[in-house]
Design goal:
The chain is mainly alpha-helical and 211 residues long. The protein is 55% helix and 11% strand. It has eight helices and three strands; from the N terminus they run H-H-H-H-H-H-H-E-E-E-H. A hairpin with a 6-residue loop joins strand 1 and strand 2. The longest helix has 22 residues.
C-alpha cells in the first residue's frame, strides 16, 4: 500500500480489510468496515471543523455526507489502487462502488487497529483535505435541491417518494425508493432508506436537468 503511505506492522489486518464477505463468509472485512466507518467519520468531521470555521452545523453535515459517500470512497479507493486488490465473490457491476467503498472503510479500520487513531486520522486528513477544499460553498443534499426545483417549477408542488422494498443479504440490505416530479420518475438504491431516497432524488435531478 505505497500510495496509502502506511506500512502495516500486522499485514494480516490489511488482508482481512481487502476480503469481502462474498469471498469468505467467515473471515471478511465487515467488522473492520464498521470500525473504519467511525474512524473516517470522526476524522472528516474534525477536518471540516478546522477548514470551515464560519460554517453552521447543517453546512458541515452536508459537506461530510458528500465526503463519506459511497461515490467519494470508491473514487479514493480506485486512486489508491484498491480496485485490483479487493477479493470478492461474484457481483454485478453496480455493486463495484459499494465493494470498493466498504474496502476503503475497512482499510481505515485496519490502520486504526494496527497503528492507532492518530495514524488513521493523519492519512485520512492528507487524502481528504484537497477533496474538502474543492468546493467553496457547502453542497445541498439532493432531496432539498429537488424540492426547491419542483416548488419553483410547479407552483409549490412536492416530489412524491415511494418505498419499493429491500433486497440483498440480511447483513447488507439494499433499499429501493422511487420519486416522481415534473412528469418524470427515477429510482434510487442505498444501504438505508435515507440513502436510497437521496440517490433517487439525485437520479431525478439528472433527468430533469438533461444530464
Amino acid at each position: 500500500m505505497k500510495k496509502l503511505k502506511y506500512k502495516f506492522k500486522n499485514p494480516e489486518l490489511l488482508d482481512l480489510a481487502l476480503t469481502q464477505s462474498g469471498a469468505d463468509a467467515v473471515h471478511n472485512n465487515e467488522r473492520l468496515e464498521f470500525l473504519g466507518d467511525r474512524v473516517l467519520g470522526l476524522s472528516v468531521a474534525a477536518l471540516l471543523y478546522d477548514i470551515f470555521p464560519n460554517e453552521a452545523e447543517g453546512e458541515l453535515a452536508r459537506r461530510q455526507a458528500v465526503l463519506v459517500s459511497t461515490e467519494t470512497l470508491a473514487a479514493v479507493a480506485e486512486s489508491l489502487g484498491l480496485g485490483g486488490m479487493v477479493r470478492h465473490g461474484h457481483m454485478t457491476g453496480g455493486r463495484l462502488k459499494h465493494v470498493l467503498a466498504d474496502a476503503m472503510e475497512s482499510v481505515f479500520g485496519a490502520i486504526y487497529l494496527d497503528g492507532g487513531f492518530a495514524s488513521a486520522q493523519k492519512i485520512i486528513t492528507e487524502i481528504w483535505t484537497p477533496i474538502a477544499r474543492h468546493d467553496a460553498t457547502a453542497p445541498k443534499d439532493p432531496k432539498t435541491t429537488l424540492q426547491e426545483l419542483v416548488q419553483k417549477s410547479a407552483a409549490g408542488a412536492l416530489p412524491e417518494y415511494k418505498f419499493l422494498g429491500s433486497g440483498g443479504p440480511s447483513h447488507s440490505p439494499v433499499f429501493n425508493v422511487s420519486v416522481s416530479a415534473l412528469g418524470k420518475s427515477a429510482v434510487g438504491a442505498g444501504a438505508s432508506k435515507k440513502a436510497a431516497t437521496a440517490n433517487a432524488a439525485e437520479e431525478l435531478l439528472k433527468l430533469v436537468s438533461g444530464n
